[in-house]
Structures are given as structure tokens and as C-alpha cells.
Amino acid sequence: MRDWNHLPVEIKRHVVKNLDFMSRHSMKSTSHVERLIVNSTCFKVPRVRFGYKQGKCLVMIYTGIEKFLRLELSKCKEGILVERSENTWDPRDITTKILPPSDVLKTGLTILKNLLAHESIIIEAMEWDIPDESPKIKYRQEILATLDNEKFRVRELVFLWNTVVLEPLIPNLCVVDDFKLLRRFGLEISGDSLVPVMIHDSQVEHPWTLGRPCYQSMFCLNGSLPITLVMHFQDRDLLLSDPKTIATVLRVASPLPQKPDRQAHSDTINWTYGNECGYWTAKMIPANEAKVKKMLDPEKCGVHYQCKNCTDPFTFWYHQNLARRFHQEPFWGDIVWQIPGFGDVEMGIRNLKIELAKDEKKKEKMKKWEKEKSWGFKEILVEKCDFKGLGQESEEVKDSGDAFYDKNFDIDAEEQPENMTIPSPTSTFSLKFFFILPILLSFMFYLIISHLYY
Ligand SMILES: [Zn+2]
Ligand SMILES: [Zn+2]
């Protein structure tokens, strides 16, 4: 029998292709050959988040829907406390480890670099959750010196809507050829919805994006008429005063099939497009009309990340759940984007937290209830409300064994089997089973006997 070491490289590479992120990372440290194989096999990471705020650091690597590795670093008496969790927000599942005393930001960046700064790893979106005002970071020295000229292969770079200090670092953070888009994003929370119902985008020509587009995207939980009216006037002022803003777009995910429609206001022009995905209205000054129209015309779906059909499932899921971080990790809640006149932010966050807590409880109940139901019934239920079913998939795909074998960073999560209740088979199922089993057995018996005689 051939063992792993004697397998041809092609087969090994095939195996590596199917490994999850952490197993892949651990395999690098098994031998030189393995390391070479891993490094020559591409791996796509849908999203990475790096956060730093008030001495705390966050490294979060998403590998799929409800699949993530999360590390939170903070200073403690003995050194740096690392809290690690995987695919779950349950505080009971957090494992901890103490690293020797060192700078929290630098340690976080080193982990980020070691895990992700490699030409074999492509990051679809990298989000930097560093609020502008709080830290006194010397960005150039501290961030770039720690990364030590290593760059990430990032397609979409995401900053908080009000963070500007990171922008000059873009050419040093990303491999230029891979970089496609800068997004500065935020969440408007004045509405009752728990998922965004509208996106407001400003497209800006930006000196630091190496010619790539820059969007300022506000995901709104409020899609009411008053807020769209306020945006209309704000956009008009912005477009007339800031020549760098080429267009503003309001994207709503309610189907509205229609031909492109032009509306001229006194000093701006609106173009509205609509289809089965939703509708989107772009506003621009007359001088930019031709340029903007050229971008709008070929676009099939202008609803962007709110479109379940046109967006990849992970990106859709991620943005649908943006508000949920106020329940899961309220400390990292700096994405709130305030529109003057739309309620007090503090109170808004408090209300949102209450509503989210209620919603999570309801979800929990649903999960328990579905677990007790029969297999056949469960399928129908998941089909009916397929978005809520997403939460359930994670239970099945919870994989084990991706330990973190790094020498200087050995944070093994003990995989504890969750109290998985196996759904009890229904009476019809067991009836069928007991009915068919004897027939099956006798058929096999018949096969064996007939082979013996003929
Ligand atoms: Zn669409
Ligand atoms: Zn490592």
C-alpha cells in the first residue's frame, strides 16, 4: 500500500485543493515538499476582516457562509490574550491562549501576514475595521513596517466610511494587478428592518485608488420616502460642489421592470433603470452624463449586493447580515453611518440590539423546532423560507480537525461535538425500512445462491 509521501505531486495537489483554510495552513509546516505544493495551489478567501480599536485587535477569516475563523487579541497581565472561535458566536466555544507580551497591533498584523500574504491566496474582499479617530497609530511605521513589504492579493478593499488615513497605504497593502475596487462602507440604522433594504452609493474619482473605482456605500435599514428625499437633496449639493463625485446611485431590491428613464432636474439628471432584480437611480451633473451612461448601460443588475440571484451567495449573505454584528460583536460596531436628522445613533444602536436579540431568540427556537421535526418535513420547511435555512446549513458543514499547528502560535480549538440531536425518523420512514429490509435481504440471498448454482 502506498502512503502519502509516495503519492505523485499531482494527486497531492488535488488533495490540497480540497482542504479547508486551516488544514491547508497546517500542512505547510509538515515538510518542505508539502509547503511547496500548498504554495503552488491557489486558494480563494471570500472575505477577511482586520480590526484595531482601543488596544484590541481582530483577525477574522471567512471561508464560506457562517464559516469563519475568528481571533481577538487584547492585552492582559501575562501578555496578549488570544480568544479564538470557529464558525460559532457561542461564547462557550471560545478557546483562549496567552502569547508572550508584545504589541497587540503588531502581533495581529503578523498573524494576518503569516496566514494570508502569499501569492497563492486570493482575497475577494478585505475589510479594515479601524475607526479614524480613536487610535494614535503611526500608520506608515506601524502597519507597513510590520507587514515588511508583504502584500495581499485583494480584489475589493473595504474601509470604514469615515476612515481616510488608510487610503495612502493602498499601494503598499495590495498587489496592484489584483486590486479592482475601493469601497468605503457604512450602515444606516434608522429603519425597522434588520437587513439592508437600500444601498446608497457615491462613485468618486479617487487619487489613491490607482485608477480603480471608489464607492462610498451606505447600506440602509431604512428605505422610507423621507430618507430618500433627504438623500436626493444631499446628493444634489454634493454633485454640484465636489467635482470628484461622478454620480450617486440609489439601489433598491424591489422588482420594477421598466425601460431606462431620463429625468432632467434644474441642474442634475436622473437615470432610472429597473428589472426583475430591482431598480436603481443614478444622479449626475449634465457634464458627466455621457460618461456615467456608458457605465450604466452594460450593467445587468444594479441592485448589487442586495441581489440574491446575481451576487455570489457568500457576498449576499455577508451584507444581509451586516447589522447582526451589533448583536454578535458590538465592540466592532463602527460601521454606523449617521444621516443628520435621522434619529440619535446611540438610541438607534440600543433599539437595534434589542430587535436583533429578539430575532436571534426566534431563530434559536426555529432551529430547535426544526431539529425535532422529521426529515421529510424539514426539507419542505427549508425550501419554503430558504434564506432562514442558511443558518442551518452551517450545522452540517461544521468540519473538524483544522488545528492551528504553528510553532509560535499554537491555538488549537478542541472540537466539541455540539449536542447534535439526530432527527428521529418518522413512522413512515421506519415502516418502509422494516418492510423493505427483509425483501432486500432475501434478494441478496437469491443472488448469492443463483451465482453458486449457475
Ligand atoms: Zn440581480
Ligand atoms: Zn503560520
Automatic annotation (TrEMBL):
Q: Which UniProt keywords apply?
A: Membrane, Transmembrane, Transmembrane helix
Q: Where are the transmembrane segments?
A: 429-449
Q: Which superkingdom?
A: Eukaryota
Q: How is this protein named in the record?
A: F-box domain-containing protein
- Originating organism: Caenorhabditis remanei
Recite the lineage of the species: Eukaryota, Metazoa, Ecdysozoa, Nematoda, Chromadorea
